[in-house]
């Protein structure tokens, strides 16, 4: 018997939760036992399981990814171009998302914060105090938090900026010790990363139950009033993803690779459809490489370096989503976000997108980091589950397309001809 795919299970859970929460009214009970606390227990248990994965998953992912770059032998010219493109494209994606979420303000309904509509429990005053503290000192404070005095304490207290910075340094200097030591360390962290992926996949098996509890609690408490701001939020994310995929990335292709962007869309169609259906950039990687080499004409030398690296650290769609989600939750609490706080969100989303695993819904772990960095309650990300699957499919497609754009740009600036039918070399000559 074929098992129902996870995204269908989650969709069914959302529908059932909405129905059960609706027919139960505002304070449902069975045999005198209140159901809302039970829904809350199941949802909170799932959120806690996701939070449990954050530190080891992010650390192992970043360390393995950075160590892989440093040991490849091409970290100089080819690696430099790749990293500059990935950081620039992710930053542009975040800024697109930031602009649109400030324009549409999905967390505001009829001039009022959507906190009560979304059944967000945390005290607004306490949240505002934390967020205000997070924005103090703006950019200087961000960099101070990036260098922890005690990395173990930073991990225990959820100070993920410092932990990510430490992981980046650790992965880089792993390649600067003798080969035997480096290989031992790499094998260890690679094993941790693979175990954490398995654990994440296992936790996600319980996503239907967790989503059921979160959605049922929200609907039972507020009815379907929560649908309004969530629909606007989802449309904002989709619009931002569309702008990045159809405007920003094609513009980069025209400027730096001098190719016709529509040809890349056609060449990458198999990979984009696979990314959309699986919501996993890692699972799509073999098809992405095949499409880029056979259909787009990029050499194996370039694609085998750029694409695996991109599947690890280049998450344009995910970075954009993290920013919009954090801003949406902040708006829902009625918080006036200063430039410093918004800058913190941008920088944190950019950094955390580097360590997101290329599996379905892994970005929810990264969003928890962004919320923690600016003082927002992690529990609030429960409201995002309603539309997360379709948004995950869309942002994964953007991630994969962004990787392919990077490979084309690097290939063209490396002097490769015949990429997407272009015969005139760009940049470095061979």
Core attributes:
430 residues; mainly alpha; two-stranded antiparallel ribbon
Q: Please, could you describe this protein's structure?
A:
- With 430 residues, the protein is an all-alpha fold.
- It has a single domain, classed as Proton glutamate symport protein.
- The chain contains 18 helices and four strands.
- Strands 1-2 form a two-stranded antiparallel sheet. Strands 3-4 form a two-stranded antiparallel sheet.
- β3 and β4 form a beta hairpin.
- The radius of gyration is 22 Å and the shape is globular.
The whole-number mean of residue pLDDT values reads: 79
CATH class equals: Mainly Alpha
Shape, principal axes of CA atoms: globular
Number of domains: 1
Short description:
The chain has helices at residues 6-24, 36-70, 77-104, 124-135, 138-146, 151-156, 160-174, 179-205, 207-222, 227-257, 261-267, 269-278, 281-295, 300-313, 316-332, 339-352, 363-373, 385-413; strands at 29-30, 33-34, 108-109, 112-113.
